[in-house]
Amino acid sequence: MKYITFKELYIKNFLSVGEEPVKVNFNTGLNIITGINKDKEDRRNGVGKSTVADAIYFAVFGNTIRELKKEHITNNITQSKCEVVLDFEISHNGQTQLYKIVRTLGPTKCYLYVDGNDKTRDSIGNTNELISEIINSSPEVFQNCVIMTINNTTPFMAKKKIEKRKFIEGIFNLQVFSSMLNTVRSESNELLKDFNVECARYEEISNSLESYNNQQAELQSQRDQTKATLNNRKQLNLDKIKECKVKLGNIKQIDRDNTKSKVTKLNQAQQKVSQLVQDHQTKVIEISTTINLLTEKLNKVGTKESICPTCLRPLDENDVSHIEEEKVEMNNKLDELREQKQTTDKSKFSHESKYSDISTAIKKLESLLYKDGLNQQELVNLKKEISSLEELNQQIRDDIKQLKSDDTSLEDTIKATSTKLENVQTLIDDFKKQINVYEVIKFIVSEEGVKSYIVKKILQLFNSKLAYYLKKMDANCICVFNEYFEEQIIDEKGKICSYFNFSGAERKNIDLACLFTFMDIRRLQGDVAFNFSIYDELFDSSLDERGVELVTDILKERIEKYKECIMVISHRKESVKSATGEIIFLEKKNGITTRLDNPVFSS
Length: 603
Known about the structure:
single chain; 603 residues; alpha/beta; seven-stranded mixed β-sheet; six-stranded mixed β-sheet; 10 helices; 59% helix; 16% strand; rod-shaped
């Protein structure tokens, strides 16, 4: 345990203290701080007695109990540099070190010296942290176990539940568990944030995976549909190819050259026949013309007139005979010509018939050639169609092959996403395990956990101490706390009642009993003990003469037991009679507080 012994307090230009310093030594015994206010017709209020308590608190924590602003702490009359110096020593593990805290305003500074060596840190805040570590006491505990400004602070029993809890943890030195709980909660909250982030990631990746699977299924469906369509097309093309090949097999081809040669020969023969027909036609025309001329001549030769129709000379008998002979000859000639014409007509008809036969044969051959030409074109078209269909089928086979090769593109993404999802799930599982561990730890360091266990262990001692001081204060009630420090107050009639059911003096007895109990528990359970305590206006409010006597007995008992320096701030004249140590007499004049070394007390 650390034993902190306050040695000396130096105050200058602090609150009502001016340029002339006020020094206070922490001597063992019951010391009374009192004084007189010359500025108000010898009044004892407003002297600056509480300045001593504020100065001690300011030296340790850098602030006043009344939480004044910095500009209101420096003496407003002198307006000079404010300075408070606190000397103390700490004994721990057989070693003793001397400490000095120097705080100033105007400029604002804080210095810490250990055995004369400057241990001031790089900032006032960091130096304050070091001082708090050294004295191992929070401001709340210090105000209720070292500096008791009873009328300026809220009594413990009147505090809110959370304030009580905080103060009790300081008394029992359990704030480490609160610190642990805060740390665990903070880490747990961070863990939960990370957990929620991973859960959100899991949901996001899961949604992505589901989307990818849906896309994959849709793509697969599209592929299957496309593949079926392509296969149907391919089959239709194959059917068409088969049909085309059947058509190809059914097309008969001829020997075109031979047929053309025949057509050429027939054309040549037809030309010859045509020439013969033309020759016979010419011959028939010639014979017909000759027959016509001869018939006309015959018709003229046969006239009965006596004059020659030709030469116009008279005809004799010889001429008539000759004419008859001529007529016979001409008729014979006509018969010959007619027979010749008939023969020529027959020959012409025969050749015309032959010409027609040849024309028919040529047309048949040309028809064969035309049909063969159509077949040849159809063969070309069928072969082109077959080639085109085969090319289409090859493209279809390539498309189907490409479809198969495309199947892995999204599968790789799905596989990578599934792996990522598994990794996130692993993280989530790890977070769950850690969260469960933190939940156990939080319970352990919570009010219901180890703190409750520790409090139960010391609760009997605490309640017995409280009962002891209530009895010493002649209180008309008992007060019992459970492990959650929820109090139960029972009055002298055995009824459960509230703290606020009591009068001011009765509440004061409860407050003082709690105060002394906390001081004892702090000494027993904490790892630091102070040689000093100060009570502001302990004797001046609510307590009657018997109450003052009882409180004084308790203080003297503590001095005897713990060798403490107890200071009581009081404006009552009779308070000095209780002093077993030094009487610190302050005087305020012209707004400035000074200490009188040899005061004269009037009865």
